[in-house]
Amino acid sequence: MTVFFYMAAPQIPLNDLGLPAKDYYTTADLCKVLNIKPDTLRHRLRNGRYPESLKVGGKRRFTEIEIQDILETTKVLIRKGIFASSKH
To answer: What is the value of pTM for the model shown?
Structure first.
């Protein structure tokens, strides 16, 4: 009789934003944190609601600190009635 033991996949550590810890995050990661669609994020970036970000190969990348700043900016703009809340 053969006995197999299965090991669980190693747990990836998450940061305070609930994302896997890494140096740079994508627009998809930021959209997940903000609970918005990519088109909404692009619109807000183009219209100066959020600061410009690093572009690598034409794609935006964000640090964890930049995401936290954007999250705080979003909260302020929601309180001021400039953005609608994405919570249901």
So the answer is: 0.79
